[in-house]
Write a structure and sequence with these properties.
It is found in: Nucleus. The chain is built from 40 helices and 36 strands. The chain is an alpha+beta fold.
Length: 1295
Amino acid sequence: MVGRSGGGMAGGVGDTQQVSQSTEHLGPIPRAARIVNENLMAERRYPDLDTIVSQGQSSDYDLTQGAAWAPFKKVNTHHIPDAIFEQYNQAQCHTMMGLFTEIGYAWMTVDNRLYMWEYATGNGFQGYEAQPNTITAARLLKPRPDVFNEKINYVLMIGTSVEVILLGISAIPNNRNAHDIAIYDTKMSINTKGLDISVIEGSKNGRIFFGGRSDNEIYEFTYKGQEGWFSGRCAKICHTSQGITSFTPKIAFSFLAGAKDTEYLVDMVVDDSRSLLYTLSSKSNIRAFHMSQDNVLVPRITYSWPQIRSSVGVLVGESRLIQPNSTIVAISPMPVEVGRRTHLIATTSTGCRLFMSAASSDYVYETASSMQVVHIRFPPLPTNAHNLREIPINQSPALTPTRRARIIPPGYFFCIVESQDRDGDSLFISAPDTAKLALLADQGHSRLQLCENSSFLNLESRAEAIEVVCPPPLFGNEASVQFDTPPAEFAILTNTGVQIIKRRRLVEIFSAAIRYGAHGPDAEVRKFFDTYGRAEGCFTALAVACGIDAEAPENRGGRITDQEVCDLARKFYIDFGGKPRAESSYDGANVTTLDNVRLSGRHEGLALYVSRVVRSIWREPIIKENKTPGGITTHKSIISTAALEAVQEQLQRLAKFLLDNKSFIEGLSAPTSMSVVQNRLEELALVAEHKGMHSLQQLTAGIIEGISFVLVLFEHPIDEIIMGLTEEHRAYVKKITYEELFTSSTGLELAKELVQGIVNKSIASGGDVDSITTALRRRCGSFCSADDVIVFKAIEHMKKARDETDPELRMTLLRESLRLFEETASSLSMDNLRETVSEFIHCGFYQGAVLLPLTVAKATENGTDPSMYRKDGAPENAPQAEVNKKKKMCYQLIFEALDRVDDAARWELEAQGGQPSFQTQLRVDTWDLVYRSDDEQFQNELYDWLCSRGQGHKLLEINSPFVLDYLRRKAAENLGHAELLWQWYAKREDYFSAAQVLYRLVRGDFDLTLEQRLEYLSRARGFCSSQAPAGTRQRMTDLSHSIQEELDVAVIQDELVKRIKDDVRISDSKKEALIVGINKQLIGLTELYNNYAEKYEYMDICLAIFQSADYRGPLEIRKCWETLIMQTHERADEDGRLPWEAVSEIVRRLGHRFSLSEYIFPPTELVPLLETYALTKQRNIGPRSWVIESLLDADVPHDVLLRILDDMFQRNEEPFQGNTRKTLILDAVWVADKWYSESLKGRSYAGGRAAMGAGFKPEGVVQILEEYLKSGVDLGPETEMVERLVSDIRRKFII
């Protein structure tokens, strides 16, 4: 929502926090808190002096004539007591007068005597007559630290005609708004004969400077607590002369020169914020010195009167107010908090103010070497002039002649104008109109000009001094601090008494304008609104309507007795507040946000009222921690009780006003006028107005109760209450601010903990819950709700149970305590829950320790979807994230209780020798209660907890629908949960699902070893072999086939790993890398072949890969066999083995492995390869028939072997040509004989093949053998064997 926007440059220390976020969805309290913070930030952005006073000239004054609008008011006149006048009449040569407003005293010197008195009461006379010389100057200053004892909080510097004396002053505040003082002789004085001391000045760190009418030198009075070896306790240093003359007495030669030729010191001021000392001489020359360190004063600038006049001429041209015969009568420093560029303001004898800058371009004051006038402010035009237009603004004689002047930061101007008719001096006072300047800055004026409220007062006597009684706010809009800062007051000392001048604030002016304004209340108030804006006008009207009138005697305001004024202020607040308005540039159909609405002046005024009332406490910590000398920690309130009560009382007035006028203030009640709105924009504006007003009303009520809570808190033993908090809360209580207490959930949580501490302390002191909670609810009900009362009663039952010895009664109390806690489950804090669960466990009430957190967790959901925690992974910014966080904390408490009940059962079981016990049954009942919970999130958290403790096997025994859903979800990302899932299925004989889980597990991304994958695949294949449920047989068969394929691949990988481990050709590091790569996951057959088997020439594995891939390329398969045979031969030869035996063994082994794959173990290729190998590599080595025996052992059928051998014989190819063909004939005869022998035995099994003997083909065999006999190959002795075999076959089979 659009509120008061800041303008101009940021000045002073302000908030840097940005509050640009939307307020659309904020609740009432956060919305109001943001409004307060925005207002506080806006008022801190008040433009600084450098922004207001630009280079050039000005003379804009609001010179009021009527009493109603007067910015200042004479509130009191304190006459000089007769006793002082009696001493004055006894003066012989010299008297002086002045004020010590710091302690509420006025003073007068009579020759060598100094008298002081309380100017407000005329009492408290003090005198100092202990020295004989005429007093020429006196000044009350702050002492150096650690020089005097703590009783002396001021020092009084007295200058006389021959010495300066330092006295100690003890000033203790009394109930008369003054001080009881005591004067102490410090025994410190130095000789100043001939200096004619007239000016004394001091810095805040206790340095003292002085000078006189005899010269223009600057002296420093140095002092310390103890004397040194070569120095006394005090001394004098001249900072503007060198050599011995700076330490010796001064001889005055001024009488030898004319009065006009002697330049002497007139004024001296200190700017502590920049560590600068300025001096003014009788010739209006200004010097600046840097106070760099103790006893060092570095001259930086000398700015002469001719130079000053030249700078003024450049700015404004010729002015008769700045002439050679004009003088500077006073200089006033401006601290850095007021303006970084403006350092000094000089006032001339014609009433002109010269704003000077003494800093370098980078604002380094220590190195500044020049000074210049940057702005001149001329006096106002005379009030008695007949034609004001004839007088130029730079020629006004209204403040001529100015005899005294003083400018008090941030810009209060006091000018004593000497009367020409001797009727007494006239006092001109002006001050920045800060509220008007703030309005102009808010409105975005690019070039601000100083505008001041001013007025003339007739003092009717001669003014002697101008001092501050109560300082104005150093910087910023004075209207923003009028609730918590007393009005600025000043004391003007004249020769007849002390006149007290007070700055009137806007609430006083507004009230006075209504009472006796010259043009009637309506016109006067309209003028006020036009001058200061709608927001300030509504605020002021609201303040007056609520009874705030700062002209009452009380510092913080009092009640208006004139009811008519209050009623008129109420009327102006309501009528002049305007209406809320959405920007017309928006299309009413498209406006969807309330932040685009400019709220009414009533809302702005209410927001200002609340913000300004709480400003002094809003950001302040509540509690301050102190350490006693004995090391004991104590706590106290930073804000006084009186200040808190004052803020509360002002807010209570506001709350009553809003309640009484609820039906009259549009937007405060529900927007009942919705029926008459013209469009969507008006409707939106009314909604925004209502939300804003309602939020501020809610915040006001909350602050009132919050302050009541703080007051109640400090009425109890706060140290003991804080010590009873948790460590986290103890740390927070030391830094929590009032803003956090009023507006944040953490502040409310801490307050409830403190309330509980108050209740516990009261119960411990013998009180009862009802009485203390009734008192708390009466004073601060929101901090002690009905739920809190129930909690306190539950705690009371729980504490009684702890002390009860009767088991049944104890359990009754515990159950009642549980019932009460469950009633307040939605509002029970985690600390209370944690302590309660701990107490239940201590009492052995484990079921209560489980049930209460479950109930609180359920109540915490508060309408959120509990399943969302797992659907979206519970992101941190999700709406239910905080809910889930608290629920998990509740579950953790349950787990702690389960741990304790398990431990108790185990200990008792061990103590009773393994016999079941009461604790064992209690454990069973408690776990059963846990398993029966219908809180799905809890069950999932429970399962996680069990698995994290290595107790996941317990999930296999739980028959809950949540278990299966949990394991299914977790199995996708956790190996342990996946193993539990297939075990869960297997335990319930759902073997198909178990096999599916294992199959997915093997194919997943889990970090499994190859051995584990083989195990899982084997288990899965076994599950697929089990009886299938109805309707799943085909699916199980398909799954079994897929599993077998993966298993074949896994077997190949496993074999590959073993071969790599035994391969001496590969280095150990390379082996490790290869094995890791193979073990990581199941690898595709192509990758296995290319990257491993073929690369490292593992030909038997290559053949296995061909088989698994169903690859039938004859050339590649033959090549593999050729390579394999030669590798086997070479390795056997290297190892000293018989090569033919090695080849025979591998043929047998692979024959059995690939017996079902004719394309992987092709006899048509292998028989020629082996016969050729035997002939060329193993000729006449080994048994003649080893090749044929090997192939028969490899399950190659007799008929196949015989046919292949016969084909080889018939082809007559190399190397079987000529006589070498005999080898083929003999092998064929051997096969035929073997086949025939098997058939004669009547066996139906040969070489592992069923019914092979029954397939003997005698005709074919005989034909082949007879062809060999006729072939002409010389068989030698074997011819007879062949003929006999043929004869036997013919005879046996009757051919």
